[in-house]
C-alpha cells in the first residue's frame, strides 16, 4: 500500500515547514518554530477557560473545554498532548481538544505537563497523574460526571494516558471508564539497529515522524536504563488486567504502528475490552487534520465514536 497523492503532498508540505529533529537539535528552537505556525481553528465550544492543578513541582496548567452551556454534569476527558515529551502545549492542541469536546459532548480538560529535557522522566508522568486525580476530585465544579471520566492522548500523550490508567488501577483511583490511545508510544526500547517492530524500519523516514526523531526524543526524555520501566514504556507493565476499556488508534505509515498494536493485543489478552483501529493512508500526527485530509477525518470520527459509546454505556445508563 502507498500513500495517496493528496496525503503525500500534505506530509511534504508539513515536513518542509518543520525544523529537522535529530542530533544537535535545540528544544527551545523547535518550540519557538511551533509558535510561528498558523494555528488550526477547531470548532466553537460554549466555554474555554484556563485552570491549574497542584502538582509535585508547582501548579500544572490546565485548559477546560465545555461544549454545552448547560450546567448538567457531562462526561469528562483528561487529555494529554503529544510532542515527544519535549514539544507541545495547550496552544498546539487547542484544536484537537475542541474537536473532542464538540464530537463527544464531553468536557475536555487538557494538561500542560512538564517537558524534557529540562524535566526528564518521570516528571511528565507525575504531572499527568496528579492532574487526573485533581480533575476527578473536582469533577462537580468542572461540570463532569465522575462516573464517566476517560483519559486520552496522542503520541507521547497516548503514552501518558496509558500510564495514568495503570497508576489509577494500582493506586486507588481515579476511576476511569475508558482510555483512548492515539498512536501511543508504548515501548522506548530497541531504537536503532535491531528494532523489534517492522514499522520502525518501514516507516522510519519520509512519513513526517522519523526513526531519527524518535531516538532523539528518547534521549531527551529518558536516562540510560529507563527504556523498559513501565512508567516510561507501558508495554512492560507486569499486568494489563482490570484496566479501563480501550481504543488504540494506529496509522499505516507510522513508525509507532506496531508497538501500538502490540499494546492493544496485551490489553485484549488480559481481558480488557479493546478496539484497534488502523487508519489507512494515515501517518503519525494525523489526528486534528480532518479539515484537510479524509484519512484524518476518519481518525477523528473513530475516536469520537468510541468515546461516545463508552460514555453511553458506562454504569448501565444512557449518556
UniProtKB/TrEMBL annotation:
Domain called Alpha/beta hydrolase fold-3: residue spans: 77-287
PANTHER family: AB HYDROLASE SUPERFAMILY PROTEIN C4A8.06C (PTHR48081), ALPHA_BETA HYDROLASE FOLD-3 DOMAIN-CONTAINING PROTEIN-RELATED (PTHR48081:SF8)
A molecular function (GO) term: hydrolase activity
Designated name of the protein: Alpha/beta hydrolase
PROSITE patterns: LIPASE_GDXG_HIS, LIPASE_GDXG_SER
InterPro entries: AB_hydrolase_3 (IPR013094), AB_hydrolase_fold (IPR029058), GDXG_lipolytic_enzyme (IPR050300), Lipase_GDXG_HIS_AS (IPR002168), Lipase_GDXG_put_SER_AS (IPR033140)
Keyword Magnesium part of the UniProt annotation: no
Family membership noted in the UniProt record: Belongs to the 'GDXG' lipolytic enzyme family.
Annotated keywords: Hydrolase
Residues at the catalytic site: 155
KW Cell wall biogenesis/degradation (keyword) present: no
Amino acid at each position: 500500500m502507498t500513500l495517496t497523492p493528496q496525503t503525500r503532498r500534505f506530509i511534504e508540505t508539513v515536513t518542509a515547514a518543520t525544523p529537522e529533529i535529530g542530533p544537535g537539535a535545540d528544544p527551545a528552537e523547535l518550540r519557538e518554530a511551533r509558535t510561528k505556525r498558523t494555528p488550526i481553528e477547531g470548532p466553537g465550544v460554549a466555554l474555554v477557560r484556563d485552570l491549574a492543578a497542584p502538582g509535585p513541582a508547582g501548579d500544572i496548567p490546565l485548559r477546560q473545554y465545555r461544549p454545552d452551556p448547560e450546567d448538567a454534569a457531562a462526561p469528562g476527558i483528561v487529555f494529554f498532548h503529544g510532542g515527544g515529551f519535549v514539544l507541545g502545549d495547550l496552544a498546539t492542541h487547542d484544536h484537537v481538544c475542541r474537536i473532542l469536546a464538540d464530537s463527544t459532548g464531553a468536557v475536555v480538560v487538557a494538561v500542560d505537563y512538564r517537558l524534557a529535557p529540562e524535566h526528564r522522566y518521570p516528571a511528565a508522568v507525575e504531572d499527568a497523574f496528579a492532574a487526573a486525580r485533581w480533575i476527578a476530585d473536582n469533577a462537580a465544579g468542572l461540570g463532569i460526571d465522575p462516573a464517566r471520566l476517560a483519559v486520552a492522548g496522542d503520541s507521547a500523550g497516548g503514552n501518558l494516558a496509558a500510564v495514568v490508567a495503570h497508576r489509577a488501577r494500582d493506586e486507588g483511583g481515579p476511576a476511569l471508564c475508558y482510555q483512548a490511545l492515539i498512536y501511543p508510544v508504548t515501548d522506548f526500547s530497541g531504537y536503532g539497529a535491531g528494532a523489534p517492530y517492522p514499522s520502525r524500519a518501514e516507516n522510519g523516514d519520509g512519513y513526517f515522524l522519523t526513526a531519527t526523531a524518535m531516538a532523539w526524543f528518547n534521549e531527551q526524555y529518558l536516562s540510560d536504563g529507563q527504556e523498559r520501566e513501565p512508567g516510561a514504556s507501558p508495554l512492560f507493565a507486569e499486568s494489563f488486567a482490570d484496566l479501563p476499556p480501550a481504543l488504540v488508534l494506529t496509522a499505516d505509515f507510522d513508525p509507532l504502528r506496531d508497538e501500538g498494536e502490540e499494546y492493544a493485543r496485551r490489553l485484549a489478552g488480559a481481558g480488557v475490552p479493546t478496539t484497534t483501529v488502523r487508519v489507512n493512508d494515515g501517518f503519525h500526527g494525523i489526528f486534528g487534520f480532518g479539515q484537510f485530509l479524509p484519512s484524518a477525518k476518519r481518525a477523528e470520527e473513530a475516536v469520537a465514536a468510541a468515546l461516545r459509546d463508552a460514555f453511553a454505556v458506562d454504569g448501565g445508563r444512557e449518556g
